[in-house]
Amino acid sequence: MEKDKGYGPGQPAHHFSEIEQQTEAVKLGMWIFLLTEILLFGGLFTAYSVFRAWNPDMFINAHKFLNVMLGTLNTVILISSSVTVVLAIRSMQLGRREKTIFFLVATLILAAVFLVVKYFEYSHKFHLGQLPGKYYTFTGVEGTNPHIFFSIYFSMTGLHGLHVLAGMIAIGWMLVRTVRRNFSSEYYAPLEATGLYWHLVDMIWIYLFPLLYLIG
Amino acid sequence: MDTTGTIFLTPGGSTIAGEVDSLFYFLVYASIAMFGIVLAGLVYFGLRYRRRQTDADTPTSGRAHNLKLELLWSIIPTILVVIVFIWGFRIYIKMHVVPHEAMEVKVTGQKWFWSFDYPQGASTVNELVVPVSKPIKLLMSSKDVIHSFFVPDFRIKMDVLPNRYTITWFEATRTGNFDLFCAEFCGDGHSDMIGKVRVVGEREFSEWLEAGLSGGEGMTPEDFGARLYVSKACNTCHSIDGRSLVGPTFKGAFGTRRVLEDGGEVTIDENYIRESILEPQAKVSAGFQPVMPTYQGLLNSREIDALVVYIKSLK
Amino acid sequence: MNTLPENHYLNARRGLKSWLFTLDHKRIGILYLYGIIGAFFIGGVLALLVRLELFGPGRDIMDAKTYNQFFTLHGAVMIFLFIIPSIPAALGNFLLPQMIGAKDVAFPRLNLASWYIYITGAVFALYSIHSGGVDTGWTFYTPYSTETTTSVISMTLGIFILGFSSIFTGLNFIVTIHKMRSPGQTWYKLPLFVWALYATAIIQVLATPVLGITLLLLILERAFGIGIFDPAMGGDPVLYQHFFWFYSHPAVYIMILPGMGIISELISVFSRKKIFGYKAIAFSSLAIAFVSFLVWGHHMFTSGQSEIAATIFSFLTFLVGIPSGIKVFNWLATMYKGRISFDTPMLYGLSFLFLFTIGGLTGIFLGALAVDVHLHDTYFVVAHFHYVMMGGTVMAFLGGIHFWWPKMWGRMFSSFWSTVAWAIVFVGFNMTFFTQFILGSRGMPRRYYNYLDQYQPLHAFSSVGSLVLAVGFIIMGIYLVHSLFRGKPAGNNPWGALTFEWQSTSPPPTENFVKPPKLTHGPYDFDKISPERTFP
Asked: Which residues face B158 on adjacent strands?
């Protein structure tokens, strides 16, 4: 395999001339990737807007079956995890490897709790028959085509949940690399990029939460 | 009114066709002119400035700007396209404003035929009969997937959707038969979903309305059935020469035992034919898809009787 | 007498593993080239079979079901496996770092991953052929696509995966162009091919995710019946069309912009003249990228969308055509007072101008509301897009392949046979597709297995044209492969061009340059320098 792990502290990869160039490239790359994610979710937000405009009352009736407490708890959890990831990056900026590890682990734990809460929410819905599309059997929602709300709910939170999982894998990988001393106060661009990604995952939830849980 | 047609366009048959064609030909001529300029440039520059062996290998001219020229070839095309836009827009609006005296025909598209319901109570399959020189409004919907109602000679087209009505209209300018195509891909029989618009004189139209409600006067049941086989679009999916199409052939079918999709068996008799016309999904022949639409409401008893007689006759 | 350099990127390391795990952008470009050629072959065979069936009305060689699957696969394979990756992934990967004096792209491992994602997506898509085919048309319109029993999920999943390949390539190129240019190489000193790749990358990055979510929703619709496109469940099939075309219209500019970038290179080099209106060409690419997102509704003029929406889309559609027209005039003006040679790459460049002009002008027909009502979903549209995609992009791609072939392999192809093949392809193309404008305006609808007798003569003529095209491509394959083994060494700069890649050997070394290239002149400064051709 061609050698590319040229960079130890201060050493850029072979195709970069300076470490600053590599840092900037990694960050720009992540910002562009985030842009693509915004467009991906944008499609779902558009579908949400269209169907809510066509079924305003049904949306309000259906959303009452979402647990606002759990939703709020998840929002707090995700925001906290964004704080911990920032602290992890700050720690590496100051060269404090152990603190970085600590905060990365904290982020992972918070993310895992988020997913556990979502698991409880989902299983409750499965139990009630509030399932997407043709599997919908719940009868307690007034209005036309109530399954549409749940189809959109599951699509949006499901895709978001997959991104939380992907983020956990990325953060886990950052943890491994931090333990292996791949980063230093001079170079921690992948850590920063992962943090940026995690902020996006948080931000998407911050839009999802009021649109699904707090309308009406 | 253009009744001669050219290589590009068949003779128009509606009031809007003339206007559409005028814009079309303007575009043809403008395109020829534009293309001519480009081609002339290519050929002339290619010849005049071709590299010759005797050429010194010196640098070429560095002039890479000419404001006047650049403005010219930016502004003129812009003006041209704005003209085309406005022109196309105005005709389009006319296409979308239905005259209020228009006779409304309900059009239903389904896999794979058209059916038409007239305000006077008549209904036809695959043949839209209309009086000449009268505006006709088409109120359209689909029973299954998206289709599209396209009459090339009238220059009209509108998608036919399953969840709502779409509307188009036309006024035929001459009598005759005009092709009707489905223009939105809808499955195996998409290219067989061919109908026709039959434009007749006003008096002939009234006569047709009266006769068309019953139909088959003075014909033997077998001949009537043969005519229905075509006019009701059975021929789209069932052959009479032994070939299997979307559906099984009628040739030699009557009186035979047929194995069904679910493993059961049935003898093809009058009752089976009648049942398959009205409830086609009840006993589907093995090896065929359950895609036949029901003719409930589209055929009356007399017509079904005639079809049974006709199918019986096909040895 | 030219000789091949002793060490270059092709022989630096040998063996299958050195290719499958390579991080060298040039090797990755070649890997993509193999995939793309394979896809073009599959798509081409499907096209020939379709045209063979259309030789006469009624059944010729296959039934309607099979025919519907063949035209669907032809479209999907050509668009997603061939044309969208073609220029950026094969030529762009090979050339971009060289053109900016860099050693590689910003993220070489992401680049290799993009190729593997491409292959994975292709496998999923092609597997659908085995598992029941797809018969919806490459556009997958609902509700037909949600009810058909064919293998829609396998195909759409494949395309979804391919989308990531496209996104990551675009992302890689944007970062590379921003961060890795040679010292002193400002934006206005970049080759126009780089500007074209940049504008394309912007579209790839912004539009493809929307395709992703559209196909995901289609898959969910089929798998779970979520009902957002199903009228029986309160959904709307036209909503699908809006989602789909929001990506697929910008996608056509992903296809043409890189081709236009190649044309800028070819016209300038083979006229040995400074490109006319550099900034106009550069900015027109960005303008096209931007406006391309605003015109998707022109695919839906007869869909039942509102008249206001249709009007706005029509107006914007005309605007997006203007920058393309400006480019054509700029290229023509470049030839003025040049010193033009008619090597094969230039033949492709000139035929691009010829064919793309026709394709672009017929786009104007389709942008005009009233005329589009008649022409929509007819063969006129089929002819239009083949003129711009094949007469445009494929001609540019072939021009680029022939232009950079000696750089990639170090060897030159037979100019006699390449001229012969070009002529046959050009004639075959016009025979096949100009006929279809007439078929369409006379009312022949698209995606028709069967047709009325009156259309038969034109269909037969078009089918014969497709056979001529096939002959041209077969000849092309033969002389290109032959050149790999017996072609004469081309030397560093066989065409006498000025961009950086011609400063190194043919083939170049793995790190692209032995010494970093010095920026002593712009990429089109034929008014200051007259570089010698190293071939013949």
From this structure: B149
Q: Which positions of chain B have pLDDT values less than 70? A: 1-3, 212-218
Question: What per-residue confidence (pLDDT) applies to B2?
Answer: 46
Indicate if the pLDDT at residue C375 is higher than 50: yes
- Judged against a pLDDT cut of 90, whether residue A86 lies above it is answered with yes
- CATH for A19-213 is 1.20.120.80
**Minimal Cα distance from A22: which residue of C?**
C106
pLDDT in tens, B258-314: 999 988 999 999 889 999 999 999 999 998 988 899 998 888 888 898 899 999 999
Which chain A residues have a beta carbon less than 8 Å from that of C171?
29, 32-33, 36
The pLDDT-based confidence of C132 (bands split at 50, 70, 90) is: confident
Domains assigned to chain C: 16-414 (1.20.210.10)
Outline where C77-151 has alpha helix (H): 84-85, 93-99, 108-130, 144-147
How high is the ipTM of this complex? 0.94
Long-range CB contact pairs, C131-134, < 8 A, 24+: C133/C66, C133/C69, C133/C72, C133/C73, C134/C69, C134/C72, C134/C73, C134/C76
Q: Do C171 and A50 touch (CB under 8 A)?
A: no
Domains defined along chain B, listed by start:
103-214 (2.60.40.420), 221-313 (1.10.760.10)
Provide CB contacts within 8 A for A202, sequence distance 6+: A78, A79, A81, A82
Classify residue C60 by burial, with Cβ atoms within 10 Å: 0-12, 13-18, 19+. Answer: middle
- Interface-testing mutation among A28, A39, A159, with chain C (most C C-beta atoms within 10 A): A39
pLDDT value of position A4: 42
Contact C233 A51 (CB under 8 A): no
The answer to whether the beta carbons of residues B172 and B164 sit under 8 Å apart is no
Peptide bond into A205 cis (omega under 30): no
Chain B residues within an 8 Å CB radius of C524: 64
Chain B residues 172-211 within an 8 A CB cutoff of chain C: 179, 181-192, 194
Among B156, B157, B164, B245, the strongest candidate for a mutation testing the C interface, having the largest count of C CBs within 10 A, is B157
Instruction: Tell me if chain B has a CB within 8 Å of the CB of C11.
Output: no
